[in-house]
Amino acid sequence: MRSSALGCHSRLVKTSDELPLHQRLGAEFQRRIESGEWPEGLPVPSESQLCAEFGTSRGPVRQALAMLRHEGSLVGGRGKPPVARRTAPSQPFGTFLSFTQWARTIGREPGQRTIEVARRRASPEAAARLGLAEGAPVVELVRLRLLDDVPAMLERSTFVHEVGRILFDFDPDRGSVYEELLRREVDLHRARHTIDAVAAEPPDAELLRVAVGAPLLRVRRLTTSSLGVPLEDADDRYLPAMATFTIENTIEGRTVIGRYRTEED
Amino acid sequence: MRSSALGCHSRLVKTSDELPLHQRLGAEFQRRIESGEWPEGLPVPSESQLCAEFGTSRGPVRQALAMLRHEGSLVGGRGKPPVARRTAPSQPFGTFLSFTQWARTIGREPGQRTIEVARRRASPEAAARLGLAEGAPVVELVRLRLLDDVPAMLERSTFVHEVGRILFDFDPDRGSVYEELLRREVDLHRARHTIDAVAAEPPDAELLRVAVGAPLLRVRRLTTSSLGVPLEDADDRYLPAMATFTIENTIEGRTVIGRYRTEED
DNA sequence: CGTCAAGACATGTATGTACAAGTTACCGTC
DNA sequence: GACGGTAACTTGTACATACATGTCTTGACG
Predict the structure, then answer these.
(1) Is B176 helix (H, G, I), strand (E, B) or coil?
(2) Is the pLDDT of residue A65 over 50?
(3) Which helix (H) or strand (E) holds B236?
(4) Is the pLDDT of residue A225 over 90?
């Protein structure tokens, strides 16, 4: 059914307005793996079978398979057909940056209580990290993040003024700050996250409802534009019982990162 | 100079004992980018020039370029030659897995004190994670890891017996366990790291020389073979003052992970 | 009945060709 | 001098072919 829309004699029709063949093949193969049409753990059809099915040469088929192999959806090969493997989809920047999007992907309802949004002069530390002069104007946003109305994370963000000013036209309790910033075409391009552990200090402890000194998972984030100009410096403190981070990597070098609800294995 | 060793008429000599051509080309290209021979920001030679230089067809050259492009060392293209981009070297599996290698890359001397290496029956939790029957034989390895002779991390590893038995022929205080396992052709292929924070318990606290209850950065690691068979289940607890993890990602989706010495920014 | 060798078949590697599509530089025209 | 078109060059895509190499099955032989 579906295949007929794909492989039929593309040489006879004009293909200029469509995606390249190997990309269409790759998308179709991925769909088959995700849908279970090619069951996990079983070998997929051989290259020649795929060539015959879609009426193409080996080139595009191999390009598509290589793409999936690189993403980890296919493993093995050399002598025997590669084996399908369902993998968690990775949307690094989107879900890793946005608490809101992440919460939705794990089936929880995100919530937030804005503690403070203020325009003030940069502290020496924030100024250093953002590359600003000490005392330059910045916008600070402190929010308590909730999962199903339970406190999960305390977020302290410092935006450079040019970006932060947008927040005054926006209700941070309403929707995702990142979605709003991207919609306003702020050039959020690259983020560097540094993960460590800290003890809960009195204000954190009260908001997150834990004892002072309890271990918290801290993520410091420096978000920069595509030209490397710092735009945001953040300090997020997670309750380890509510969220963990995962990194999955293989010996070939593929890497998938993610943030997960704590207990569910 | 160097190129002559690479490209000269490999058709005339037996190539069976050497790496495939496109891999050698990829390594050579990467070397040129890292060494600055192909300066950052400038277009690299065109494909036809590279074909001429190494005496090959376009196929291997394009395969090598695609590899570098996927790693982020090359950007752009279509109509104009791609542009070199120096990126932080990412050797995810190697340095992320091996404390020894990581320590060396940050210029510290790794050390270790083996607390225990024992063959015993799997605990219910370890058995569940390793997919073994409860009580199946496993090998447990507990090591205190040092950086410049200062305690930095406490590592508790549980290996399935088939892999762990190798450790009895090997002195864990001598060299890298992972290097040894890879040398013995153990199929360590994929690792899933889960990061959270825990409070130091009495035995941890004593070995790491911190107060009971101090926050520790915990990394639980499940290492599996290429077929998805669990081989190792580990629980590493870092002093947050000695190490942090970083994740760098861009909006396009490339991701680089790393482990860093704490304060040095 | 077990073992090993041959062959069929799979993927990996490499070459050569052809054309499409984007980029750049140049040159003639207005 | 500014503009526009063309030509040359680049990479992207696709096909056909050939051979190397790894895997599995089959069948003959001991």
Answers:
(1) coil
(2) yes
(3) strand B230-238
(4) no
